[in-house]
Amino acid sequence: MGTAIEVRDLVVERGRREVLHGITCTIPSGSVTGLLGPSGSGKTTLIRAVVGVQIVKSGEVTVLGRPAGSAPLRSQVGYVTQAPSVYADLSVRENARYFAALLGLGAAEADRAIADVGLADARGQLVGNLSGGQRSRASLACAMIGEPKLLVLDEPTVGQDPVLRADLWARFHELADAGTTLLVSSHVMDEAGRCDRLLLIREGRLIGDDTPAAIRTAAGTDDLEEAFLRLIREREQVTA
Ligand SMILES: Nc1ncnc2c1ncn2[C@@H]1O[C@H](COP(=O)(O)OP(=O)(O)OP(=O)(O)O)[C@@H](O)[C@H]1O
Q1: What ipTM was estimated for this complex?
Q2: Distance 57 CA to ligand 1 centre (A)
Q3: Which of 11, 36, 45 to mutate to test the pocket of ligand 1 (most atoms within 8 A of CB)?
Q4: What are phi and psi of 118, to 5 degrees?
Q5: Which GO terms label this protein's molecular function in UniProt (predicted)?
Q6: I want to staple 84 with a disulfide (CB 3.0 to 4.6 A). Which of 61, 139, 229, 240 is the partner?
Q7: Which of 10, 12, 23, 44 to mutate to test the pocket of ligand 1 (most atoms within 8 A of CB)?
Q8: What string of pLDDT tens digits covers the 240 residues of the chain?
Q9: Cα–Cα distance between 70 and 153 in angstroms, integer?
Q10: Do residues 6 and 43 touch, judged by C-beta distance below 8 A?
Q11: Ligand 1 centroid, distance to 40 Cα (angstroms)
């Protein structure tokens, strides 16, 4: 398994305050990596650096062997922000066909992506009339068109019911099995166990980078939420 993302000594300032303090990690190809951490810990900032839309103070981010944000990566990286990025005045199908057309792809690709996120029955509806959870899935469908090699998803399951969340996670793993790399942020600990690997971030620092099983073993608990808390306490003792 190769490396899809390599982050080295990444320091980022936002609003003249340092919010990432030297992050180093590698993310393997063809896997689902979860980026977990409390609100404000720096998940979105790290994601933005990976996608190449974040000004960085120092350090390096390499994606699929190229500097993050470089032009050849544009068709290979799908990014879904927390705010759905679809057109409210177009239907689900029109949105998907528009994004497919930008990549030189046809209606079949668009329809497949819509079905993949469970929106086939709502494909004719205007996005502006969808529920919040449906709108997020419409945005996800558009990012999945063209089978990008890397899919970066910022809290993709917020607002989804348990059945849909399970379906989406199953789909993420199917994509990973087919070779796609997924980086998925969440602050919901019960989703952490669904990932192949976890990056645990707190206050702009990585405090865990391993498989869920290894993190549970290291922390001496089966409960990932408790494991995260123990890692935080250990850190605080080390730095006290
Ligand atoms: N545009 C901005 N200008 C200044 N500071 C910002 C900006 N965006 C985020 N920050 C700060 O950067 C830090 C990290 O924010 P970030 O959005 O990366 O956290 P997060 O872990 O994604 O949070 P959440 O789970 O709430 O989305 C926070 O302290 C936040 O206040």
Answers
A1: 0.96
A2: 16
A3: 45
A4: 75, 30
A5: ATP binding
A6: 139
A7: 44
A8: 699 999 999 999 999 999 999 999 999 999 999 999 988 999 999 999 999 999 999 999 999 999 999 999 988 999 998 888 899 999 999 999 999 999 899 999 999 999 988 899 999 999 999 988 888 899 999 999 988 999 999 888 887 888 888 888 988 999 999 999 999 998 777 788 999 999 999 999 999 999 999 999 998 999 988 998 898 888 777 766
A9: 19
A10: no
A11: 5
Q: Tell me if 187 sits within 8 A of 37, measured CB to CB.
A: yes
> Which residue, judged by its Cα, is nearest atom 9 of ligand 1?
14
DSSP for 26-79, please give it: EEETTSEEEEE--TTSSHHHHHHHHHT-S--SEEEEEETTEETT-GGGTTTEEE
Residues 33, 69: contact at Cβ < 8 Å?
A: no
- Amino acid in the structure at residue 110: A
Which position has the token pair 């899935």? 137
Encoded tokens for 165:
């969340």
Residue from 44, 43, 46, 50 nearest 78 by CA? 50
